[in-house]
User: Fold these one by one.
Assistant:
Number 1:
Amino acid sequence: MNKKLLAFAALALVTAGANAKVKLPHILGDNMIIQQDSEANLWGWDKPGTLVEVSTSWSQQKYSAKTGKDGKWAVKVQTPKASYTPLSITFDDGEKTTLNNILAGEVWVCAGQSNMEMPVKGFGNCPVKGYNKAVLEANRYKGVHYVKIPSVMSSKPLDDANCEWKEINPETVGDASATGYFFAQVVNKALDVPVGLVMANKGGSRVESWLDRDYLKKNTKEDLDSLKMTKNPKFKWDFLYPLLWGNGTFHPILNYSVKGILFYQGCSNVGDPAGQYTQRLADLVAQWRRDFKQGELPFYFVQIAPYHNGDVNGDAGPRLREQQFNAAKIIPNSGIVCTEDLVYPYEVEQIHPCQKQPVGERLALQALSKTYGMKGLFCESMTFKEMKIVGDTVKVHFDNTYGAYNRFEGIKGFEVAGEDKVFHPATAKHFWQEGNDGWNECIVVTSPKVKKPVALRYCFRNFQLGNMANAGGLPLFPFRTDNW
């Protein structure tokens, strides 16, 4: 470009700035759901030194901000309680811009990789169970809206994304995150409030894809040069890149006021060293909470489902599930849902299981119980508590049974091993006898091939389906008592 063209381009920019009207990020738009009963963030850009006035349809209060040298402005607006009454917001810098059909409700982020991204209509050769029913019933869920943030890579954090809010109806429901939408269905009906879903995710992404540059430089050996990433044999596909997806796909939503975060990710971290994923996930949650600046946002996440991972009898998958389970113990204000039972036997090589409605419903149970304080719900899956070995028998107690097991006999998924560390399929059944030693009622596990058991496992293979659950039908988390 010659000097004349450069001068002309510069003049064009100055002229455009002089005539600029208020510019809003795309996430602030018609049909959006604003977080109810909160101080919601509103922000944008304008000519430096411009006074931007903000008014709302629900209040006489006026808000204003003056743009800085960078042209940015921001205000916090007190929002009303949830309702289905359409609202509007007007921005005025001398020329008015009005957003319409806004609802106040509950806003949740849908983050993670492809099993969160997976839409109600499914992917190619990856259907979602219940699609037609979701379309037929879409009009029953008034006030459920969503915005899909495009999956974009960037070496620097982006402040905007090309997106728009959509109302759920038969024509739009197919493009919504299935897990997120089925979560929204339950919350919408249980609380009778509008629900907004902010879908910021990327199929195949690793936990490192969402961590920021400072963290990755300090705590990992990840190469953060985007050009070198393209030549690094470690990254066979671009969805494995660190940093870039967080910068391009998640950073644009960090100013938006939300209620909490839903997360479904982990498949691309299978094989991580013990404890690494646990810590990095906990650190990612801390990073997001810091950047949203809205306190200790609730964080509910999904344990990855059984998948062959190249060897149905291997244990790389359950070792990652174990790290996820441990993460739930150290992340404050969090909860994890188990999906051990949400894979059909014929889905051994299907990394996108079709049963997404129960996943969303279980996330909703966590939120309704822990965030919204709804009483009487069974929201936790059963977990291993303790075992006692008596001769050739392993006696087992569990937490979160809610007073019942889903079955007494025909239990599948348990294995026991002796000192040789070789695990064998085991028979498990309900045991009860009179007594008061604390073990008069339990599950007893035995195997004819193990006379002196020392360790117990449940569904601790890449693809091993169990069938044990609690009174709420929530499955037993895979576990092991050994550290081999």
Number 2:
Amino acid sequence: MQEQPQEELKRSLGLWSALSIVIGTIIGSGIFFKQGAVLDSAGSSTMAIFAWIFGGVITLAAGLTIAEIGSQMPYTGGLYVYIENLYGRIWGFLAGWMQVIVYGPAIIASVAGFMAIMMTNLFGLSSDWRIPLALITILFIGALNLLENKVGAAFSVITTAGKLIPIAAIIIFGLLWGHHNAFGQTVGQVSQAGGGFGVAVLATLFGYDGWILIANLGGEMKNPQKLLPKAIVIGITAVLVIYTLITVGVLRFLPAIMIHKLGDNATSYLAMAAFGQMGGKLLSIGIIVSMMGTINGKILTFPRIVYAMAKRHDLPFSRPLSYLTPKSKSPVVATLFIIVLATIMMLFFDPDHLSDLCVFTVYCFYTLAFFGIFILRRNKLVKRPFSTPWYPFVPLVAIAGGIFVLISEIFNDPEGVLLFIGIVVVGLPVFYLVKKIDRRHE
């Protein structure tokens, strides 16, 4: 296994910070804005609930698999580092390139776009305000993450605690005061156009995505070999339970056909209908805070990939991109780089479309990483601080889930898939150009 360069980032993150980043990064816009999309594709409330559970099981299997791999490579960079050590420098570069050029900025833009929809509904603004509000939020959270990593981690803890309020309110109100049967409602007239159960599960995976980003902070954890697997497994399990309860609560309060008609506005409607004008506004604010926490987790973690790649001279302008502030050890230029790309994505893509393409792109490399557990198991000399339970069944479930995601999105949106694959492949000439320049300066 390849030696990693000495890290200069501060090892200051403990279990609660790590857990808040995992849960806070996962629970954001997906569970609040994907209810309609999942229901439309699944065709019935029962299948929609199963889609959320199935997506959670796939994610948990993926998390358990990556937890074993990550415990053996506790370095800053996460998936970028795993793929390189498993498959070589070029594949590692493409995994990093995919995250910093495509996936990271796109996922930030997508969540910010959904959050702006919620904000315009809350304040009664026109849709023209969506992009400015999303941009202001990204710049504000980006500014926080230019400070020491403890600031971004503290914001994650606060927003994670804050988001539990609207989540608990929706679950309790829906389960106790909802009048509809959460199971057995049908929306047959839209199920055929929606894409079926496969596309429904794909939509849920956007809601579950983000769990692996804690691996990007491996070089900043106090005891990453033990802490990283614990944070991933506990975090994903908690989110799976929460998502299932929220879905049942929403379906008990709103009939399926109304969720279909309301689309992205279903959560705002539920908040106002359940808790009145003032209570609904407070609940909507809680959901917005939830999304801000998700954006914070992503702006905190993705620049660490840029930093890790720049330290290896894998990117153009690696010297400024690897710069750390003298006191706080914060990768400020890398953070600004991610913010600029997210802004570009926000201006040119619809957030719902972005979310599906993000899941497809990252699962290309997730699936490669899942296969890596079998490669590492063959090396008896490598110490394994964490072992995936029920091996090899759990990794095989993760692999099957990854292949399922890829096939579903290829059939659902071949043009978008080709576009995002094209952006990733462009990384190859960039890699060789950067290495050529490096050789000239040696």
Number 3:
Amino acid sequence: MGEAHNLKRSLGFGSAISIVFGTIVGSGIFFKQGSVLDSAGTTGTAILAWVIGGIITLTGGLTIAEIGSQMPYTGGLYVYIENIYGRIPGFMAGWMQAVVYGPAIIGALVGFMSLMMANFFGLSASWRLPLAAISIILIAALNLLENRVGAAFSVITTIAKLIPIAVIIVCGIFWGHQDAFNQSLHEIGVHDGGFGVAVLATLFAYDGWILIANLGGEIKNAQKILPHAIVLGITAVLVVYTLITIATFRFLPAAKIHQLGDNTTSYLVTYIFGPLGGKLLSAGIIISMFGTLNGKILTFPRIVYAMAKRGDLPFSRFLSYVTPKGKSPVVATSFIAIMALLMTYFFDPDHLSDLCVFTVYCFYLMAFCGIFILRRRNQKPRPFSTPLYPWIPLISILGGLFVLISEVINDPAGVILFLGIVIVGLPIFYIVKKLERAENN
């Protein structure tokens, strides 16, 4: 079952930007309004938190776009860290995405999605886990086909998700009667975490933008398309998220959003359009989440594939297998699906969303710093250069430090657990390489 085939470069700009937009816009914007508002304390501060979270993400995207344009290969962050810092740091970045970040972010997404599905079908909370498992299995099965099928599904669901987003924005801004910028929770005694925690909560909703880099080896003319898709995709999401937040605050009073929590969006669409209209819009949001889930299950197996192709993982010969006709990494896809199912079972989505952002930002920070190393190494013209250098990379580094410090302060036990899982990868790497040398001898 050897790696006799390579992945196919068949994805164009439309597919790339749909994957960026579709992988980001999923559950976060629909389920994090309550927690962001609770931490911020006022609607105006909550809106600012969404804007700041978007700016941090955009500066990171602009920084990675320059790095990615010079390394348009399958594997994304794993490839970048290895090329900049060496073999072992690169392996740790790949291991983190394969066994912690990827499964955790899928588990968080599907956890929120199953809540909305249960509400949609009028099912009890006991159905959340079965619905989550069925969703992961269905989308993983779709991605066992060739990459164009998963990419096409991303394009379709991205178009579909624009309908409920546009409806919420237009109706909220033009027909809402609340003061979107000056409501406060202080009078009901709610203020949990502060502005920093509010920004941290938004970053889960913005995360996922780098996953398109995992498909670098499957994008046509990746040196040009990849950076443009990242930058335009994040910018579009920043605008959309800000408008959705303003629309939500225009329609619902702050106290009601606090009371509803994760159910804010389900209540909002029913409140605006009645039971039938609410059902239709809820269906559109669920389709949107399926598109995001598809983007993540499409991209994360490419990291496993890239690592296995290098012989960095146990059972690499199996994990690097791609189908002869469809060129799909079927074993790697199945591995990610199984890991995500385990995460979904053992952790609640809110906890997973915070911890997966912390874990990936450990390596984002390394990559952001890496742009300075690459510029010293390579004086040749680049396919894409980060504008306002060095200020944009410096802002992304400060944003990364903010994420790490905030999460360590707020959840030290979860941080230790997830970092422990990442560190376990180091002895595994040495064992795999020792067995590889023994086989070669």
